């Protein structure tokens, strides 16, 4: 079969992610490879650990990358922390809560779920009540669930977990760097992420951080790989972790000064992950979050200025994505196609109960920019009018400009 | 923390992999992203399936990528094919055989191992004998084990497996595109690979192909993810696959026209994987294998021309890597450091029982080139002499040139 070198059509990706990668991240990926144990390579691994400590706001030594997409990070955390029969509590407020539930079930954990209606979040008292009832080993909850755009407040949960002797895990793929997050101050034991949202990179690498408490739990199940075992190597007593690829005890050994061989690190993805974090640290995490807050406010105001209704509890939505109710009589998918065809702008569809009911527009990572917000609103006005929706001409961009003038 | 944009030191990676990526593959990775369901993206996914069918020499519909390093592909194959208690036979002739064994054990399969001394391969009769005794569901064997450089002949095994009703799985990460391989003609049911050897790409994507028979076995365990299930979606009766990330039934749905959402495809790695296969198909698989054979012969002749002893059964070694016994009195690691410091050439160390006994030199992918072979031999001569080894001046490059003159 005959095929040509890759040559992507021009796009501005304003959906809920993946979004356009920062050009500096793309350039980093085209750098030459070096050997797996080259001092340059192990130096970058150590730098990457340090950079992600700043991104996660943690002092955790065990801060590294899982070689896979964000759900690889989730599975690594759950399969390494949970043994068959362990109780886990999963508060579900959208599709990604269901994913945590499903992965925990596949670990043969005893999974207990509480559910909030899509478009809402949980109050800490609800979660504490469920913890009292379930007495789980682990609380597993996503911070941001892109399926609903909601952002679960986490700051009160760490203290609750400590009080009840529960490990506290969150996935921040959708929210990290776009919304306030503090792994240590908030008492997190395990945190996983991905690059393809506010980190402005491609999918394919999953940063993770583990508290000393989580490391201790995992290392009770540490077993050195058969082919690497040396005289005197002592395995831990605990049940061997079910996955080799996601065995965090082995992955920690690989990222430690011992450098025990595990997988062959995905070097180009490490370059990407390192560059994503480097750019955020250079900008400053507070500045990055403020940038997402500003452009998110402008997009929300613009959408409302066009006369559209945002979805759900907007006080608890992520800064970096907004759900928009599709006006009556409009074919949501047809409008998305027109936006791509005429303006090369991609906005998001939705899943499950919200399918056909809302669009999702992101303002994240490289696309958390004034021109991206203004261009999207201008194009949206045109395609909505074309679809027969009555709206305020200029109302979207006008409302967004007001936000920018306030600053 | 302050860190700079990535800027790798110059290297020529002549170890057993990863090796230098082809510059065209690196360029492909710096292409802009598009949305996950953009017709451009799904078109590239389909192209990638077609290209890997040519690389694996198969008509299997189920030919796709696993988003992770090569061991992610191995784990996906084993965890999806094996249920707890299933019998699997693993012929082990090096470290990567031990890896298959370990991953199968973690699936709670009943793992039976036969072992060949490191440096040798199995005769088909030995494997058939073990199949008779064990009566496994699956035979799992690597084609090339880089730890020993050996290449297990596979062509007779498919017929044996069919006769005994056994599924036949191989990992060809180390050997694919550098050595003859024919998935369909040889009766393979599952094959996994990686990009970082003869495919001339970075680690981080694992091509996989599954025969209709393997697909049927896997689909008996197909369960649609909770968050995606629709009215009337029927789950299969079989035990749910233990991993979500490596659930090949779900991954096949994602790569099918149904496009059921699973992970967010690692777009840049897909660009890389597609380009690796595209370059091979453009060159022609037979030509690519002939190129590896030629440069492998030249390197072997050169090493012998220097008076060094190749390791193991050289008639059964992979074309793309050679093991070299470290001469008495030479500090193997010190010599490797000098090679990098003075010539920027990396050659490989070794694992387990061979550690400190052999070096491994690769001639693969982008580095299966005459200048790479000649430069490595010239540099090797210098550092060996510097280390006090008595050798034939010019004997390495001279012997290699003779091979090139024969053609």
Automatic annotation (TrEMBL), chains A, B:
<dbReference type="InterPro" id="IPR024169">
    <property type="entry name" value="SP_NH2Trfase/AEP_transaminase"/>
</dbReference>
<dbReference type="InterPro" id="IPR015424">
    <property type="entry name" value="PyrdxlP-dep_Trfase"/>
</dbReference>
<dbReference type="InterPro" id="IPR015421">
    <property type="entry name" value="PyrdxlP-dep_Trfase_major"/>
</dbReference>
<dbReference type="InterPro" id="IPR000192">
    <property type="entry name" value="Aminotrans_V_dom"/>
</dbReference>
<keyword id="KW-0032">Aminotransferase</keyword>
<dbReference type="GO" id="GO:0008483">
    <property type="term" value="F:transaminase activity"/>
</dbReference>
<comment type="similarity">
    <text>Belongs to the class-V pyridoxal-phosphate-dependent aminotransferase family.</text>
</comment>
<dbReference type="Pfam" id="PF00266">
    <property type="entry name" value="Aminotran_5"/>
</dbReference>
<protein>
    <submittedName>
        <fullName>Pyridoxal-phosphate-dependent aminotransferase family protein</fullName>
    </submittedName>
</protein>
<dbReference type="InterPro" id="IPR015422">
    <property type="entry name" value="PyrdxlP-dep_Trfase_small"/>
</dbReference>
<feature type="domain" description="Aminotransferase class V">
    <location>
        <begin position="44"/>
        <end position="347"/>
    </location>
</feature>
<keyword id="KW-0808">Transferase</keyword>
<keyword id="KW-0663">Pyridoxal phosphate</keyword>
């Amino acid at each position: 079969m005959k095929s040509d070198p890759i040559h992507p059509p021009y796009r501005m990706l304003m959906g809920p992610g993946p979004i356009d990668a920062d050009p500096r991240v793309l350039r980093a990926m085209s750098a030459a490879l070096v050997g797996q144990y080259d001092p340059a390579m192990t130096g970058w691994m150590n730098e990457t650990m340090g950079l992600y400590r700043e991104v996660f706001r943690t002092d955790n030594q065990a801060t590294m990358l899982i070689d896979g997409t964000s759900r690889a990070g989730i599975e690594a955390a759950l399969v390494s922390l949970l043994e068959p029969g362990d109780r886990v509590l999963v508060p579900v407020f959208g599709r990604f809560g269901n994913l945590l539930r499903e992965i925990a079930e596949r670990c043969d954990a005893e999974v207990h779920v509480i559910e909030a209606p899509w478009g809402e979040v949980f109050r800490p008292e609800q979660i504490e009540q469920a913890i009292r009832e379930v007495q789980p080993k682990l609380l597993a909850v996503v911070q941001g669930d892109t399926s609903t755009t909601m952002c679960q407040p986490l700051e009160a949960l760490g203290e609750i977990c400590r009080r009840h002797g529960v490990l506290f895990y969150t996935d921040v793929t959708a929210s990290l760097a776009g919304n306030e997050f503090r792994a240590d101050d908030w008492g997190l034991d395990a945190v996983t992420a991905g690059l393809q949202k506010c980190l402005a990179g491609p999918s394919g690498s999953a940063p993770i951080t583990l508290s000393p408490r989580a490391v201790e739990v995992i290392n009770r199940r540490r077993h050195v790989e058969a082919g690497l075992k040396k005289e005197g190597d002592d395995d831990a007593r605990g049940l061997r972790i079910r996955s080799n690829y996601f065995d965090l005890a082995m992955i920690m050994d690989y990222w430690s000064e011992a450098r025990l061989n595990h997988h062959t690190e995905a070097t180009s993805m490490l370059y990407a992950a390192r560059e994503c974090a480097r750019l955020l640290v250079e900008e400053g995490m507070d500045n990055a979050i403020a940038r997402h807050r500003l452009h998110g406010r402008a997009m929300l105001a613009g959408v409302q200025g066009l006369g559209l209704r945002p979805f759900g509890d907007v006080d608890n939505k992520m800064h970096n994505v907004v759900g928009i109710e599709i006006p009556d009589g409009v074919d949501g998918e047809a409008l998305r196609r027109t936006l791509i065809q005429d303006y090369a702008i991609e906005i998001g569809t939705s899943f499950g109960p919200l399918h056909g009911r809302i669009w999702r527009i992101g303002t994240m990572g490289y696309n958390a920019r004034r021109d991206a917000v203004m261009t999207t609103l201008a194009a949206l006005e045109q395609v909505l009018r074309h679809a027969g929706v009555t709206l305020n001409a200029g109302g979207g961009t006008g409302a967004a400009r007001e936000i920018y003038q306030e600053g």
